[in-house]
Amino acid sequence: MKSKLTIAALVAIGAFLIFPSRAVAQEGEPVVVDEVIAQVNDGVVTLAQLKREMKERVETLKQNGMSEAQANAEVEKHRSELIATLINEQLLLQKGKDLDLTDRVEAEVNRRMLDVAKENHITSIEKLDDEMRKSGLDPAGIRQTLRVEIMKQAVLETVLWLQTGRSSRLF
What we know:
globular, about 10% strand
């Protein structure tokens, strides 16, 4: 009986963690936490992803000398192109999973993180994570960004290799 109760509790917690797209505001009233702006096969592009990308682009334009108003206007002008880019990224990530590249990509992410640690004379990944946090960086976010970029490149290289029989493999 106790093990069934434990399993039921774990399932309930797992469901909450896996499906956090709704939160309860008042007795049973669901509140949308994020909005799906595009369904891409079994994946989605969310409003939060779009806003994050737009914010990053605004920051880049500001660093290159634009005022905030100009940067916001410029990024807003290209909103639909950015959504298309996010959809294409989702398709590449899905193709990478179909091509069974996930383990190779993860190994490459780990290799690159170890390289960064060595270059900075840091003796462990845990210490690297600590140093990144001290610098205001999110280690998990950086790893995820690396995963996405490496996966996209690996898919493009694999498809090129399959089409031409040639490869300029990174790893």
